[in-house]
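Tokenised fold entry reproduced for everyone:
>
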Amino acid sequence: MSLFSKLFGKKKTRPKTSGELIAETTGGANLVDGKQTWEYAKKGKHDLLTMKKCCDAELKTMNKTGLVPAPYYFERVAILSRKEKNYRQEIKYCELYIDTVEKFYQKNDATQMADVRKGPTYQSIVKRLQKAMDLMKKQNQSGNLD
């Protein structure tokens, strides 16, 4: 603290991040166990439960702020579900994201904002959905109902 600040009792404060502002205005909808969802992008990406919580937080944030949910967490749930051969769950999260995004852009003017549907992660989720459906069909035909 500078001498001037000490004399007048003023503290230097750093500007709040967009995530902190969103947390304040949404009552913490974008938080998972007290942290921003992006904080789990690296260290929690192999934890299915954490990624599912991040998906929930992204959906809550969308409902409170009107921001489209980030596709990363939905793709991670799909990837981790496939590793477990849980194709039903993979399909569920792919469909959830695709349906959510489609409804978002039907409700909002996509020409006035970035369109995640044109991005590689969204496209990957779309491709995953069909592959997961094929894998589940094959699994069901073989009688292996994991």
In short: The mean pLDDT is 89. Strands lie at 31-32, 35-36.
